[in-house]
Amino acid sequence: MAKKRIRDKEVKFFVTAAELELIDKKAEVAELDRSKYCRQMTLDGLIIKQDFKQVDDLVYVVNKIGNNINQIARRANEVEYVSLDDIKYLKKQLEGIYSQIERFYDGG
Question: Which top-rank group of organisms is this from (predicted)?
Fold first, then answer.
């Protein structure tokens, strides 16, 4: 009598010849056959998804501050004076950048 399979569901996907070669090499290094390697990677493998929203937000803030600095510089050249409020405003904006950078490096 034939032995009943534990894994009785088939999963198929298509790869190129180069991808198949790479899968086989990785399976060999892991000392697994192709089926076991693919199953193991599917169940326990690591997928890295990169989210650049924080970087986009940081770029937006930096651009905004750059525009503000240009406006203040233009005003300073026109009247040869920069107010304390302008300097405080720029300082606050820079603190926002530092905060964004810290959140980025702390992982969110």
Answer: Bacteria
> Which range marks the domain in which residue 16 is found?
12-47
Evaluate whether residue 3 is within a structural domain.
no
Q: Which amino acid is at 16?
A: T
Q: Is the pLDDT reported for residue 75 higher than 70?
A: yes
CA 55 remoteness from chain centre: 8
Task: Say how far apart CA 87 and CA 31 lie, in whole Å.
Answer: 64
The two three-digit tokens of residue 82, written as one number: 């920069």
Residue 107 pLDDT > 70: no
Residue 16 in any domain: the answer is: yes
